[in-house]
Amino acid sequence: MITVCGELVIDLIPAGPGAPGEPPQYTAFPGGNALNVAVAAARLAAVTHLMSRVGPGPFGALLRGHAAGNGVATDAMLDAAEPVSLAVVELAENGSASYSFHTVGAADWQWTAEELQRAWPVDTRIVHVGSISSWTPPGSAAIAELLGRVRTEGTALISFDPNVRPTLIDDADGVRAQVDRLRRTADIVKVSAEDLEWLEPGADLDEAVTRWATEGPALVVVTDGGEPLRAARPDGALLRRQPPRVTVVDTVGAGDSLAAGLFAGLARTGVLTRQQLLDLPEPELAALLDDAALVAALACTKAGANPPTLAELEAARG
Known about the structure:
There is one protein chain. The protein has helices at residues 33-43, 57-69, 113-119, 132-135, 139-153, 172-185, 193-199, 205-212, 254-269, 274-279, 282-299, 310-317; strands at residues 2-5, 9-14, 26-31, 48-54, 77-79, 85-91, 97-102, 126-130, 157-161, 188-192, 219-224, 227-232, 238-241. The strands form two sheets. Strands 5-4-1-8-9-10-11-12-13 form a nine-stranded mixed sheet, sandwiched between helices. The protein has a four-stranded mixed sheet with strand order 3-2-6-7. β6 (85-91) and β7 (97-102) form a beta hairpin. α1 (33-43) packs across α9 and α11 packs across α12 (310-317). The radius of gyration is 18 Å and the shape is globular. 40% of the residues lie in helices and 22% in strands. The protein has a single domain, classed as 3-Layer(aba) Sandwich (UDP-N-acetylmuramoyl-L-alanine:D-glutamate ligase).
């Protein structure tokens, strides 16, 4: 029912402070926006496909095994000759993560229209794209064309999260133009306050979320770390929801977990068309957003991209 299309990244996360004079030790965690969202959705008992290009070698096997081991359907994971993307993670004292990416020539950016057509799961009702693969050529053009067809046909809700990585961007104007195209094509847009600042420097969050909601999507959600998230639909009403407070280990995969929590909630409640999302009463939308924020908060209590299961979510709800 849910298809996630995008990159696979091996996150190299510090195993702890290294001894003086010794090189740091890292643990390899399967990651990347698409994999994180797919695993999080599957752990919440949503039927989930991962549509990705998988590089060879032990890292490729680790990524495939992680997806399959968490209940993600791997039939749309295509073998690729190019290498797996790597991200070296640096953790601040508060657990927030920054990334140094090693992605030149990687498998994730080489999608062709033929590959996307061949991999597309026919039962898709929600499709999510985002992050680096959605705005990195040459594959980003094919992804945009696919989403344009899906939006025209109305066969699935389209979700987009730009998840900007400025250190990987050579053509800022080109990326902003691609993000603008995709956010206007999508039915659901999730964007962080940090990404919004890069896309529209100095933008007011309240104004931006309500404006974006009138420019194509049925729902726009702006996250802001532990601060209230903002949501708006084309009717102009602004909704704020406070995420729960937790003890943060790190924030790796938090935004991906929130997106997956929202998709799983939409699937569970049968909100699977644009019109149903537009017609959803505000209290029901607020409940779905609260659940999604709780999923993200629970992910922050564990190291790496490690989202909760449905049982853990239900237990945390109390």
